[in-house]
């Protein structure tokens, strides 16, 4: 487990998760991971990665506890493979994540949008307009932008590869600097 500015994560798990039992495998494995784009909050269910978020770990923890399960804890057997893939990606050794993704924290519309992200190849970008057209909603640019901005599984679901337009970078959950770093990792100009 990691601790950081938000405090001792293990203590947070014990206090906020009434069913926390340190030696049982939790429903949701929870931890943080520090990388070149900042701290990422990781949560993994039996179905896959449900969070790889730039948000504060307390915010993510509360959302997971409210929407998925209160039995949350450290579980290296589920978290460590995600960390290894993130490290390999950040070092330029991995282009496609193989870790399963669980989009249950996304709205149904956002899931539709986010399911398009893996089709955007490593090292390339697309626009909100192209994504809107691919999902059959060519006028839903703002909704597409909002869905991408609310991506609960950043980096792994590569929403950073979507730009506002050919000449405008657009926002990113981790901030513009993180998006630019991800572009450099992938060789995107």
UniProtKB/TrEMBL annotation:
Single Gene Ontology BP annotation:
DNA repair
- Which residues does the UniProt record annotate as the domain Methylated-DNA-[protein]-cysteine S-methyltransferase DNA binding? 108-188
Q: Which residues form a coiled coil?
A: none
EC code(s) of this entry: 2.1.1.63
Alphabetized Pfam families for the sequence: DNA_binding_1
The first-level EC class reads transferase
Q: Which reaction does it catalyse?
A: a 6-O-methyl-2'-deoxyguanosine in DNA + L-cysteinyl-[protein] = S-methyl-L-cysteinyl-[protein] + a 2'-deoxyguanosine in DNA; a 4-O-methyl-thymidine in DNA + L-cysteinyl-[protein] = a thymidine in DNA + S-methyl-L-cysteinyl-[protein]
Protein name, entry field: methylated-DNA--[protein]-cysteine S-methyltransferase
Q: Provide the species name.
A: Planobispora takensis
């Amino acid at each position: 487990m990691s601790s950081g500015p938000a405090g001792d994560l293990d203590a947070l798990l014990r206090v906020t998760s009434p069913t926390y039992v340190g030696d049982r495998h939790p429903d949701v494995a929870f931890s943080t991971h520090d990388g070149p784009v900042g701290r990422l909050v990781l949560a993994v269910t039996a179905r896959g990665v449900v969070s790889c978020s730039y948000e504060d770990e307390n915010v993510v923890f509360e959302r997971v506890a409210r929407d998925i399960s209160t039995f949350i804890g450290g579980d290296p057997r589920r978290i460590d493979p995600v960390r290894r893939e993130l490290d390999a990606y950040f070092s330029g050794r991995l282009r496609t994540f193989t870790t399963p993704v669980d989009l249950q924290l996304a709205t149904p519309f956002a899931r539709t949008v986010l399911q398009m992200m893996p089709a955007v190849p490593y090292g390339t970008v697309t626009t909100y307009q192209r994504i809107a057209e691919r999902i059959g909603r060519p006028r839903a640019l703002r909704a597409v932008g909002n869905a991408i901005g609310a991506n609960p599984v950043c980096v792994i679901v590569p929403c950073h590869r979507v730009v506002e337009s050919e000449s405008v970078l657009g926002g990113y959950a981790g901030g513009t600097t993180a998006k630019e770093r991800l572009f450099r990792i992938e060789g995107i100009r």
